[in-house]
Specification:
Layout lengths: L7 E6 L2 E9 L2 E6 L15 H15 L10
Antiparallel strand pairs: 1-2, 2-3
């Protein structure tokens, strides 16, 4: 039986969910939960720490999160 094993990590910046880092073989990909972080998608990262640092660097460029959220 073939089993697929994925590792996924929630990436938080300033206590807000930016997205999820998902291991795909030897690299990580980022899936944005917040559209402001979509620029980090379609790139490969060598480890989850690199994803976290990229999200934090982007946060510095885009400014703080807007606390106005849609009701679910």
């Amino acid at each position: 039986m073939l089993q697929a094993r994925n590792e996924a990590y929630v990436i938080e910046v300033d206590q807000h969910d930016a997205g999820v880092a998902i291991r795909d073989g030897g690299v990580f990909h980022f899936v944005a939960a917040d559209r402001r972080y979509s620029a980090l998608e379609r790139q490969q990262y060598r480890d989850v720490g690199q994803v976290q640092r990229a999200a934090e660097a982007l946060r510095l460029r885009i400014g703080p999160a807007d606390d106005h959220r849609l009701a679910s």
